[in-house]
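Hi F.,

I've been meaning to write this up properly since the lab meeting, where we talked about keeping a consistent format for the predictions we share between groups. The idea is simple: the sequence comes first, exactly as it goes in, then the structure tokens exactly as they come out, then a line or two of notes. No screenshots and no reformatting. I'm using this chain as the first example so we have something concrete to point to.
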Amino acid sequence: MKQLKLLTPFSQLIKPTVQLSSSRVNALLLNVPRVKIDSGKNQYLLISVYLHGQTRFGRTIVRGSETKTHVEIFDEILEEMDKIGICTKSLGGGFIDNREKDNYMKVYGCCKTFGEAPHGRTKDILLSWTKYQAFTIDVSLKK
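Output, unedited:
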């Protein structure tokens, strides 16, 4: 009993951190574009972005580059999101062959560093982006 009385004042010293409201979290995440990819053959990552401790309000984004590796893409996103206080988690990667002239994309392959992304989910995110709604998008494990 005496131990509990000793612990009670200590527990009152620890104050919970101020948490942002769900609308504030959503506002931060909505400012992050869902898709950023180049024309041509891209290495891409599917990334979950969220506020620390509030993963249920997370958002999944697609990032790709014709000239950067998967690790360079992730490092760039990590640095960009750290500046605004958002956590990142890679869900996997692969390749996107983006032929904008033909309104065609092919999502395929696997990232050796982060594993294979769920390409079906990537396709859904790409089709939800206004720029790519008219595109035909194929999903495959191989090139």
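Notes:
The two ends are 68 Å apart (CA to CA).
The helical segments are 2-13, 22-30, 70-83, 119-128.

If this format works for you, I'll send the rest the same way.

G.
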